[in-house]
Amino acid sequence: MTNSNYTFDPDWVSPPGETIADLLEEKDWTEAELAKDLDCTIEDLRELINGKAAITKDTAAKLSRVLGSTEEFWLEREAQYRAALAKIAEAERLESWVDWLDEFPVKELQKAGQISDCRLDSRNKPRVVQELLQLFGVASPDQWRACYGNLAVSFRRSRTRQDNTGAIITWIRLGEIKVENLNCPQFNRAKFEEAVQKIRTLTVLPPEDFLPRLQQLCCQAGVLWVLVEKIPGAGVSGLARWLYHDRPLIQMSLYGKTNDRFWFTFFHEAAHILFHDKEDKDAIFLDYCEQGEQLESEQEREANEQARDWLIPAEYEAELSFIRYNKQVKAFADKLGIHPGIVVGRLQHEEKIAYKDMNGLKHKLTADLIQLLN
What pTM did the predictor assign? Predict the structure, then answer.
């Protein structure tokens, strides 16, 4: 059998064996003849033709000598075929996982630009599954369940109502992604205690000034602080947790949309970091701004009391009973060096004034402020 300079126009989707079979038919060669020239058995040749056996470098060299073309052609033909098989298998796996999407606020993630904004039909769902896997950095829903599915057992909630766990875990993951770009020194408790006092003085500033400074002061003390846009169904205003047991993280949303709630949430989470780290570093303290039946755990009471005292020290509490007018609120806030909205929030919470009163003294916070930290 003589060599050939046959040129090919290959179909990259079909197995390389189809090209071999076509050449056998065209040249009127038998399988036995080709197997002899390739120095292999007929069974080995049939497996090669059927795509069950891969073309190795040695096989490619033999095919090149016997059937023509180059070793590179046969190896590339094989690589393209195996890649096509892998793509088909991956598509089938993704298709089998589409029910997993029901555990997540997919539409909200689309609106937030975290995954593609497409129609959630049978054609697009596998792609959405793939993007969700990439978002969480896992290979399969089973791995997600192993890494994140049991995360809820670490939740320490501040209220009895159970929000959508998938939404909460998604919001938590978005925070993890954000802190990947933050470089901070190791946590220093004394520095963070000092930072908390400095951060209190930031409450009088507009958000475009206090947000970057807040993150900087936390970072200098070794505390990761991020602002992540809220996700409907999560309902979380803030969380405190430890990443890898040695990296404290405070993650906040803008639930509540007013500066009094923002600042109370921050100091509440700071209290968890400073006073509850030795109890359970796997715990994730989840806190809410919305009113509802609260969980009066010892840890939550301590964090509430500490946040309250940081903002308005106990020695000034008696004066709150005599404040009824805007002018009094401003004077009291000036004396304490805090924003008047914080005083209003305290008066409303303690029902010394109605929740509809004096809200003009609060500062509204909008989602576009998150871009200041990006």
Answer: 0.78
